[in-house]
Amino acid sequence: MITKDIAYPIDGKTYTGYLADGSSGKTAPGILVCHQGMGLTEHAKARARMLADLGYVAFALDMYGEVATSREHAMALVTGLVNSPAQIYQRATAGLDVLKTQRFTNKTRLAAIGFCMGGGIVLELARTHPELSCVVAFHPGLTGLPETDARKVTAKVMVCAGVLDPLIPPAARQRLIDLMTAAGADWQLLTYGQAGHGFTDRSVDALNMPGFFHHERTDTRSWAAMRHLFEETFGAS
Predict the structure, then answer these.
(1) Which domain does 42 fall in, by range?
(2) 13-21/57-60 β-pairing
(3) CA 20 to chain centre
C-alpha cells in the first residue's frame, strides 16, 4: 500500500487530501472518501486505508482546507458549506479529479463513500457526477432533504442508517425513499437497530450528544454491505 498526502488548490486556497493506493501497480477502481463534520481526520484516512487493503485506489478529499479544533468550529464549517451548494460541488469535484489523476485509478470504475456530512455529499454527487458507478452514505444527515428533486440518479445508492439516529428520523427516511424512487435510482436503505449517529466512529462518544455513539456491530455490518455492493459493481477485489 502507498499512502501520502496530496495538496491541491481551489480558488487560491490549499486543500490537502490523503491517498491510500492498494492497487499494487495494476489499474483498479477508484473510491472517493468524504469526511465528517470535523474535517479530514484520522477517521476518513483509516477508511481510505481499509479500502486500499481491499485493492482499491482510495482518496480522502478535503472539504475545508483545515480541520476543526472544536465542536463549535466544526458546526461553523458545516453550516457554511451546507449553505453553499456551489462550494460543495466545486470542492467535491476537485477531490474527485485528484482521484482520477492517480496513475492506477480506473476512471471508468469509480465510487464514493461518505460519513455524516460526507454521506450527504456523496448523495449529492450521485446526482451531479454520472461517472460514479455507486455511492455509499454512512449515517448521513437527512433532515434537510428537499421535497422534490428533478435530477436523475444513475449511480447505485446505498444509505446505512441507525434507527436511533436523531438526524435520520422516520420522516427523513421516507423522504429519501420517495426521492430515490422518483429519480429512478437503484437504491438501498439499510436501517440498523440499536445504532445512532456516527456509528462508524469510536471518537464520537466523547461528544456526549444524545443519539451520537459508536456501534461496533453496525460498523462491521455496514462495511460488509458496502463491500458486497462494490463486488457487485466492480467484481471481486
Answers:
(1) 2-234
(2) antiparallel
(3) 16
CA 204 vs CA 74, 214, 233: distances in Å: 13, 6, 31
Are the C-beta atoms of residues 144 and 165 closer than 8 Å to each other? no
Instruction: Determine the Cα–Cα distance for residues 48 and 54; give it in Å rounded to an integer.
Output: 10
HEC states along 155-224? CEEEEEEECCCCCCCHHHHHHHHHHHHHCCCEEEEEEECCCCECCCCHHHHHHCCCCECCCHHHHHHHHH
Can you tell me the distance from the alpha carbon of 157 to that of 133, in angstroms, rounded to the nearest whole number? 9
State the total domains in the chain: 1
Q: Per the confidence metrics, is the pTM higher than 0.90?
A: yes
In the chain, the amino acid numbered 77 is L
For the chain, give the number of residues.
Answer: 237
pLDDT digits (tens, 9 = 90+) for 197-218: 999 999 999 888 899 999 999 9
CA–CA distance, 184 with 30 (Å, rounded to integer)? 24
CATH number of the domain encompassing residue 124: 3.40.50.1820
Contact criterion met (CB below 8 Å) for 25 and 34: no
Which residues are paired to 4 by β-bridges? 19
* DSSP result, 94-139: HHHHHHHHSTTEEEEEEEEEEETHHHHHHHHHHHH-TTEEEEEEES
- Please tell me the distance from the alpha carbon of residue 90 to that of residue 147, in angstroms, as a whole number: 24
- At 81-107, the pLDDT tens digits run 888 899 999 999 999 999 999 999 999
Q: Which of 44, 66, 52 is nearest to 22 (CA)?
A: 52
Look up residue 202 and give its three cell numbers.
469510536
- The DSSP call for residue 9 is E
| Contact indicator for 156, 231 with CB cutoff of 8 Å | no
Among residues 103, 114, 216, the alpha carbon closest in space to that of 159 is found at 114
